[in-house]
Each structure stands twice: as structure tokens, then as C-alpha cells.
Give the backbone structure.
Amino acid sequence: MTDTVESTIERRAAIIATFKEELIQRLNLPYTAEDLHEDISLLGAGLGLDSLDALEIVLCAENCFGIKIPDESIEVLRSINTIVDYIIQEQDRRESAA
Amino acid sequence: MRTSYLKPILEKAGAVFEERCGTEVVSHFSDIATENSTVRNVVGLTDFSFLQMYRMPEETAIEFLDGVLAGNVASTRFGRITHTFLADDDGNILSDCYVANNDEEFLLLCESVIDTDEVDRILDACGAQDAGVERLHDSHVLLGLDGFDAWKVVRDAFGSDVLGLPYLSVEIYPFEGEDILLMRAGKTSEFGYLVMAPTRVAAELYTKLQEAVKVLGGGPCGVAVHDGLRLEGRFFNIFKEGVAVRDPLVLGLQWMIDFDKESFHGGAAIATRRAEGVKQKIVGVAAAADCESLVPGAMIYHAGQPVAEVVASCHSYVLDQKLALAVFPFELAYSGVPFTLGAAEGPSVRTISMPPILPKSLTLRLDEV
């Protein structure tokens, strides 16, 4: 594995692990972290979570990673991967602004 | 080979047919780009009568279906639909299933990679006759309305209260003296409905919906366009990645499984593989629009070695890119990683987060219409 690929994967894997653990606990999901594919649809299809669960997902991401997900950003909540993309984007934005 | 009751009407409308897992289906009416645009921007009407359809009384349904299917059927509330699957003895997926709780009866819709007789045989072996299971695939048709304007067609046909139907729900509506079932259950990421009707009114229903679709600027669609629509929206497609991979754990379908359930058909094999740990994972891949080699069977390379195999692909008309699903080893199955295709020096591809598109329908709230 090249250094760049390794660091990209390490960073993403760490965020995913933290987020999934928190998500399973907050929503009392009957799955292990390995069971949750990162591309599963969170709302409607897939896990079929509702609007209250969506609020928990937002709080989960905000509390774990110190970011803010705007109210109207429903596109961010489509899957675990789209949320992780947003977290990475926000972390990078903050780093470059600092 | 099983064929649709609506074949004469579909042929007259210009349908081109193909065989899919022992059943004749409409492949397409026009080119894929046109049908894709029809669904993404207006509404498409598709004949899904090739699905296996069953009905059974509520009092026997839960025990029977819970013993056969992977999901938690018992938790399906009245008026709602559970999305799950039927597996073989080895725990490999055979049918992508919807179970609808329609008050005093349950419905089972199966999209299968085996032919209808074989699905019937498996259900019979699991006690379908004792559970009072009635086969509907020869007595009913199943039509799909998918697209940004699909809600307008069902609203005009069945009344404004259809707008209150949440995703994965079912409701009965009268049509020409018959009860027809409307299910909000599309797999395109735009608004989507399935309409199930007895063959006695099938031609009238198809004609009525066809005219309503045409007035809006939509048109008929085949199943081929749905392969791309499903991939763009990251809906599971049993006819593409399903038939190539078969293992629901590699396919990421754990959400369709009730792991707390005592047993289901193929459940023991799935439980064993889950306990051993899954070694591979299906991941989205994107490439430039002109990357014609991103097709099923192509190998994806990393550090000079083949590491993943493409199992499904399409051209995304929304993104103007090639999209694919590929099976990666767990340690490389992450979004945002660059690879090459076909050789160490092959064209660049990249793993991506799915779903990659933002459907137009996500911008409209039906309860505010």
C-alpha cells in the first residue's frame, strides 16, 4: 500500500469507526459496526430511519467531530459515507483556515 | 418462458423484449439515455409483472414468512413494507423481496435470479400450502411509476391522499370495480410507486397510466434503464451485483437481516460466515465518461497487483461519468482511494461514496405539496 493510500484509509477508517460506534449506541441499532456498510441509505430505504433518528445522526456527527451540519443539508445524511465525506471536508476547511 | 399479460399492449407501444432469469421482460422502448432522462426529469411507466407475487392470510403469514425470509417480518406494521431477501441453503441470495402488511393479508413480491417455478418450489418446501399462500403472478400485473413527477400520476389516478404515503408503505384503491394495491416502493431514488392489479383491469389500468404519463411528457420504460438508475441511487440490484456476488454479507445487505431471529432459510450459513468475519466488501467506483473498460469482470489494480473485480457498471447521465460496483478486500474497501483499471498503468478510477447523485425528488417534500 502506498503512503498516500495508507494515510487516506487510516484517516477515513478512524472516523468511520468512531461514528458507527456512536450511531449504534445512540440509535440502539441491532447491528455490529462490521454489519453496517458505509453506503447503506440511512433515511427511507436501507436502515429506514425517521426524522427523529436524523436529528440523532446530526448530533452524533457534531458531538464526535466538533462540526456543524446545517439544517437543510439533507444530502449529507444519505449514507454513512456521505456524512464521513462531510466531516473530512469540514476538518480540512478548518485546518486550512487556521 | 413466463411472459407478461400485457405483452400485446407493450409490443404495440414498441417494447423490445429480453429474457431475464427465465422470464421475458421488456428491455427497453427507446435508448437508455432517453429513458434515464424520462425518469430523472418526468416519469416512466415500467411493467414489473415479471416479479413473483404471492398473497397469504395474516394469521399464517408472519410465522411462514419469518421462517423463510431473512428480515424481521413480524415487525412489519399495518400498511408498511419490509425489504428483505430469500436465500438458498448456502445463504446465497435468490430473491430480493418486499413483504407488505395489507391488513388481513400479507403480500410477498420477489425479484429473483431463479425462475418462477423454482421460487414456487422453495416456498412450497417451506410450507406455503399450509400457510394458505396464493400465487398471484398469473392473475395480476405489477406496474412501476418512477420519476420526479410520478406522484402527479398517482395523485390524479387515485386521489390526493396518496401524497401522504411514506416510503415503503401500501394502500388499497378502487379501480373499475377491483381493489388495486399502490405501494410507494421505487428503487431509482426519484419518487416511485408499484401498482398491483388483477389482470381483468390490467389493460385499462396500463392505458390510463400510459396516457397520464404521456400528458406530463414522460413515457414507457424497460428494465434495462433501471439497472443504471439503481446503481446511481445505490439501490441493490439482484440482476447485476446480486447475481455476480450472491453473498448478502459481501453485498452489504446485513440491514435486510434479522440476526436475532432463531432461523430462516439459509440463515445458518449466513451466521457462520458472519462469525468467521467478512473478508470482502462491495464499493462504488467512478471513472471518466470515456472509460469504456469499466465493465463487469474488469480487474482493479493497486500497487501493480489486481485487488478488486468490477461486478456492475453503468454510464451515469446525471454525472456524465462511468459508475461501477467492485468487490474489494476489506482493507482497501474505502471511499476516496485512487486505483487503476485493467493494468498497473491502466486508466484511473477512484472509489466513491454512494449514492453519488443528489436526486431531484429529494428537493421536493410531498407533504408540503
